[in-house]
Amino acid sequence: MVGALSHRLSKLESTVTNNNKPLIFTGDGWEYFKIWIVNIVLTLLTLGIYSAWAKVRRKRYFYGNTRLNNSAFEYLADPLAILKGRLIAFAIFSIFVVAGNFFPGVDLVLWLIFLPFLPWVIIKALSFNARNSAYRNIRFNFEARYVETLLVFLVFPFLMIFTFGLAYPYVVYKQKKFLIGNHSYGQTPFLFGARILEFYKVYGTALLGGIIFVTALALALYSVGISEEQILAYPNQPHTDQFSLIGIAFLLGFMTFYFSLFAFIHISIQNLCWSRNTLANIGFESRLKTLPYLWLFISNAIAVVCSIGLLIPWAQIRMTRYRLDNLSLELNGSLDQFVAGEQKKVGATGEQVGEFFDIDLSL
Amino acid sequence: MTIISANYFDGTTSAQFEISLEIGSQDDITLRGENIDERTYAFNDLEFSPRIGHTPRSIYLPDGAKCETLANDEIDAILHRHQRGLAHRIVHHLESRLPYVLIATLLSAVFVWGFSNFGVPFIAKQVAFAIPESADETLGQYTMDILDKIFFAETELDQAVQNRLRNRFKILTSKIDDNHNYRLLFRNSEAVGANAFALPSGIIVVTDGMVGLAKNDEQLVSVFAHEIGHVKYRHGLRTVLQGSAIVLIVTWVTGDLSSTSALSAALPVKLIEAKYSRTFETEADEFAREFLTDLKIPLYHFAEILKALAEQNSPDDEFTFLSSHPTMKQRIERLNTTEFE
Fold first, then answer.
1. A35 vs B15: CB contact, 8 Å cut-off?
2. Is the pLDDT of residue A308 over 80?
3. Which pLDDT value is given to residue A227?
4. For residues A170, A172, A173 and A178, what is the CA-based torsion angle, rounded to 10 degrees?
């Protein structure tokens, strides 16, 4: 373990140029597997009580293995606060499930009642996580106003319906700006400098790629002499070998294409958000690439399914390593001048409600 | 005396100072470094972060500053001497030993299996029988209206046939002593074909196809008995309770295990639910067997109608793993063996 760590740390030394500081992830799949499985078994044996401690250990593992310029990130949440939040969130979630099962339709009403609280849940969740994340003994912070949150997460998404999806890149832009721009490190805010046009460029490229692919596919099929009717009639004549082969090739090609598009959009947005993000005199650079990301994604999925879930920890470590190893800071000055903000405690209820209802707030 | 290297952060700025920590004889810790004042802290004034794998360790000083060090073993040694952080040490101990990890894996699997197979059904049964039968009326109150709108048309059966079967049904239900209000409904449906089912409120629906398939009334009485078993043993309520319980448990447990595993939990949940409903079919069959024996109706009538249903349905019935009914073959065999006993 120590050998692997020092190897990775020496890699850090060798790649450091004057003002480019890479993030280094030192997590290890096997080591995390052991933490993960013990988390599961203790959670089960304590009827879920331990899950709060499990969460803190998991996050501490990932944070502690994320190193920048010789020091690590740290997750500081209090498991008891998380447990309290979990119990409240669980009570609310139970009402939803039970009501939905016994009286179909009532859960819809409950959702309508819950909706106005959603912005609050989002703010508290992000705030709890930020305030419990620290680097160099300085905590992060997240602050946002209710109305802004309401607009970004509930109102703007409605725009998409009325614009046939044309507003989608705009909504993504607004959400990323909200998520990143409202964070600060100590008293220093992150500045989100990406422009709307850049988001449209990413989605536009993806759309163009989609059109080219579909046209090429249609031409290819046409040139081997398969007409539209034959493809549509395919399910009715599955016994012809020629057709089933083409069918499989068609399906595989389509899936590969679909996932590459997904990967392309994901990493482009990720790279864009980081590279347009600044913290005082610090810039960021994210160099994720479509094909390696796609390969990681597909091979992880296969590994997890084939191992009935036992390789989940390995897959998570692999993905985190790829993301962080391709992220670096551009320093124009030093990392030393950031000042701590005031200490405020945030309850974990909102965060846990967000977790139970699967509200995805990843950056 | 031990000396370890560390980074010092004062908690007000992000400046990083390389220092050395000297662990004294009383486990007091002395900080020494170029740009900081030398000072000594008593062990009891310090807080230590728990050990997680090989991640760096934090030592929190009383003034809000902290030291970060990779010297995990040295820190563990001090904590051990003072019997501090015992719970975290035990967890780390578990996490770092292969046999424990293997035992943990097996234990989790056995626990999950046992709980979902026996724990949840048992609890759901106790809860269901504690709830008065009148509650079943509200459960799926509108189900019949919805079914009528989507699947069913008026029955085309002769009024005389209907009356004859209703009478047999009434005789049957008069022998059941619970608070359900048992009713027999006839419906016609091309899509549903030959079928019969029960709603929790006591409504038992028989399709025209089912009546047509039966060679005599005894066969239909056997079907009634099976459906009455579903109602009597509260299978509707128990399905809802078990389903809710599984969803809640999976969410409560996986709430922390990231959404990847929540996703992969969807299939097991489906498998568990399929297993539950197979158990209920078996329970309803058991009930019908006893009930029919009491009424002196030979069990081969039940076996015959099941056979006729099996022949009519697709061979899908042989796929026991996901199907909700136990295979017809198993059910018929079970009836036959009882008969010869």
1. no
2. no
3. 56
4. 130
